[in-house]
Sequence to fold (209 residues):
Amino acid sequence: MFKSFFDPEGPFATAVNRIVTLILLNVLWLLCSVPVFTLGASTTALYTVLLHILAGEESHVTRQFFKAFGENFQRATGIWMILLAAMGIFFFDLYYAGCTGSFWWRLLALLGLQIVAMELTFVFPLLARYENNWRAHMRNAAVLAVTHLPRMLLIWLIWAVPVAGCIWIEEVFYALLGVWLLIGFAGLFYVTALFIKPIFDQMENSEKK
Fold:
């Protein structure tokens, strides 16, 4: 029992190594997302590393992260800027609807934000996995969101519980602040990648047939 506990290939060592990797990725993602316009590139780089890890293709994490960051910077930043601008417009519409009491304006704003959220769920994993132009990535992200709606809603729920708790409950925010800074974001992206990778595998297996 103790031999397997200290075995470098055993489950305990593997779990510790995975946690350390996620901590490192969390730090890299936070640092590279500080100028907000780079968040798309840093998220794509994070997904690149995570998808390789889930495929059993682990390598030098830091080197792989920055390599993916540089290779995807232009496309990822362009897509992120489009989505960020759309979010700004729809949040303003939501504010305007609250001021005017317009039900239809509020409905339109919420619909727009949902579309943005659908894109955010899939577009950066697609960028991390496949070579394509930005229009094709955004179109494919929308298709995946619609065709895998239950899985997407489950991903949203996994993110919504801790995020909403931190936003609405001050005690939860302070209790989880250290977790967010240490491993929280990378952990949630890791779980998201766990749900998205089977979709990619299914797509690729279908293409082979």
The mean pLDDT is 91. The chain has eight helices and no strands. The CA atoms of residues 83 and 116 lie 6 Å apart.
